[in-house]
Amino acid sequence: MDYHFPSKPLGVLFDLDGTLVDSAPDLAAAVNALRVRRGLPDLPLEQLRPYASLGARGLLGAGLGVVPNDPDFGRLQGEFLDYYASHNCVHSKLFDGVEGLLAWLEAHAIPWGVVTNKHMRFTDSLVRALGLSSRAAVVVSGDTTAQAKPHPLPLLYAAEQMGLPADRLVYVGDDLRDIQSARAAGYMTAIAAAYGYCEDEEVSTWLSDCIVRSPVELLHLFKLAWDA
């Protein structure tokens, strides 16, 4: 991985699920809870993991075969979200290497924050449970602004809250909408995190500035950017 930042960044924003946090186990558990209530067997985590970044729509489709235009979708979505709201940090944890990455940024006084499409109802409890809420310079949820990613508004709002120009910020995410949002917001660099829930072949089509395959690789990239 060779990438040279056009200038020294002033801060870093991250997506949450699939980038900082592996929340797939708790999301899969919510799907399986609904299956068990209906007399269906659990599905293995690895079967549901690829749908973790697609939210309730993707997970309910994969786990129960329902789509948004199904008459039962709204009821099942509500049941899924209610279960997940009270079980969203049972097994979720930071990806290996993320704690070291964040600690390095903090040790070098580099502000970082979170911009996620996860609604505040779920984001707040998760970042608190993982000890991130007091460390992040800003946390923007999917319903913080009038538009969610891939619209640029959440990333522009995060930059405003940090008091930093968007064109000196880096955004790291594990979905195409993350790269699209960073581009539309005029961020200096958009980095694709290929260690989350996406496939390598898919990531290569996103036209990100670079692709990292682990938080350790991302830390190495940041050390080069800040000459540390």
Automatic annotation (TrEMBL):
Q: Which UniProt keywords apply?
A: Carbohydrate metabolism, Hydrolase, Magnesium, Metal-binding
This protein's pathway reads: Organic acid metabolism; glycolate biosynthesis; glycolate from 2-phosphoglycolate: step 1/1
**Principal EC category:** hydrolase
Family under the similarity heading: Belongs to the HAD-like hydrolase superfamily. CbbY/CbbZ/Gph/YieH family.
What is an annotated GO biological process for this record, any one? DNA repair
Please give the SUPFAM superfamilies that the UniProt record associates with this protein: HAD-like
- Identify the cofactor(s): Mg(2+)
Metal-binding recorded as keyword: yes
What's the protein name? phosphoglycolate phosphatase
GO molecular function annotation: metal ion binding; phosphoglycolate phosphatase activity
Pfam annotation, one family: HAD_2
Identify the coding gene. gph_1
Q: Which reaction does it catalyse?
A: 2-phosphoglycolate + H2O = glycolate + phosphate
GO terms for cellular component:
cytosol
Give its E.C. classification number: 3.1.3.18
In terms of InterPro entries, this protein maps to: HAD-like_hydrolase_sf, HAD-like_sf, HAD-SF_hydro_IA, HAD_2, HAD_sf, PGP-like_dom2, PGPase_prok
